[in-house]
Amino acid sequence: MLLSYRPLRNAALLTCLLATAGAAGAAAQYVAVGSQLPRFGLLKEGSHRYLRFIRTADSNTPIDIWQRDIRFENGRMQIRQRWDAIAPVPSVKQIDSSFEMGTFRPLTHERVTTKEGKRVVEGFTFAPTRISGLPNLAENTQKDIAVNSPEGTFNFETDIELLQTLPLAMGYEAEINFYHPGAGAPSRYTFKVVGSELVAGPAGPVDCWLLTTDYNKAGYVAKFWFAKGSQLMVRNEGLMQDGRLLVKTLID
């Protein structure tokens, strides 16, 4: 996919943008769990689907179709995900997560994976300083998990929607404490708006903010493209451990 920066009209404009970027990027803004998010209103009820595929020098191999649904129910926000995979083996993963309105503070997280006839159920509940297993979820393989967190943490499996609620602009940096349910300890990550690019979308080119993060890995760079108006993620790219490029691209 061809990526191209919009040309700056003159040197004066370039100087102004660089000065603005320098001021905005002077320090990362810490996103505190429980605080009102400035662009939470950009989250709308509805569904979006992404194609995930692996790109090499001479091939594009599809992995799955990834659907994300947002609903507002009973004073909470629900994000439901479904992954229909064809590689490396057919499988289905379904995720249901709940959040506090306005703040994105995570409340519960349920994940069910079905692969090769085996069904695995995982459930978690988030508290201000602790992530625990959902005690009353049937077949919960994570019932006994207990992970302490010295600060509130966001749910890493819903990072795309969280990033959508931030005040994205050239030079903006966000420091976010994330926990991936079922993994190790929570950790802070920094996301930076480093540019403005046109990328292909389902209905044509989309003017996007380009965000990057290194996921706390020296030398690593993951890229995210968010549409400037809606701040919906249009594309995401990152290298896998074997050096192949994993791509997620919006299809509708």
Automatic annotation (TrEMBL):
Pfam families hit by this protein: DUF3108
Keyword annotations of the record: Signal
Domain of life of the native organism: Bacteria
Signal peptide: 1-26
Name the UniProt record assigns to this protein: DUF3108 domain-containing protein
